[in-house]
């Protein structure tokens, strides 16, 4: 990541894809596409009370760990495509980073993508709770 960049080049490309969307429906379709491309899905068999995201409208779970090189890994799963897409983009943004960087993670890319305008207040709140959980998990893994 460049020193003057707020996020990685990969996240910047995602932001640009969302910014080029013509309308709300196209943004939703792109979000669903990312839901299907999730880099680290948490299977339903691994969903439990410990990794549940509280305050989310849908059932959502996030499990965090470190890889063999000490890079952060966020695995997530949700029963709603919108939430799964948001989890996928967040995983792309944080996976592989040092946990110290994840603990300071700024999800402002969601605003830049134009998603904050299309998310219901409860979905936006659920997303922020998911980010909060990821950041808290990163803090415990430092």
Domains (count): 1
Major β-sheet annotation? 2 strands, antiparallel
Side by side, the strands of the main sheet go 1-2
Distance between the termini: 20 Å
Which outline best applies?
globular
Q: Report the C-alpha radius of gyration, rounded.
A: 14 Å
Architecture, CATH level 2? Alpha-Beta Complex
Q: Strand pairing plus helix content: what structural class?
A: mainly alpha
What is the CATH C-level name?
Alpha Beta
Number of strands: 2
| Helical coverage, percent range | 40-55%
Provide the residue-averaged pLDDT.
92
CATH topology: Sufe protein. Chain: A
The number of helical elements comes to 6
Order of helices and strands: HHEEHHHH
Fold and architecture overview:
With 142 residues, this protein is mainly alpha-helical. The chain has one domain: Sufe protein. Chain: A (Alpha-Beta Complex). Helices cover 47% and strands 10% of the residues. The chain has a two-stranded antiparallel sheet. α2 packs across α3. It is globular and about 40 Å long.
Task: Kindly summarize this structure in a few lines.
The chain is built from six helices and two strands. It has helices at 9-19, 24-36, 81-94, 99-103, 109-112, 121-140; strands spanning 60-66, 72-78.
Topology:
Blueprint: H1 9-19, H2 24-36, E1 60-66, E2 72-78, H3 81-94, H4 99-103, H5 109-112, H6 121-140
Antiparallel strand pairs: 1-2
Helix pairs in contact: 2-3, 3-6
Supply database-style keywords.
2 strands; mainly alpha; 142 residues; 6 helices; Sufe protein. Chain: A
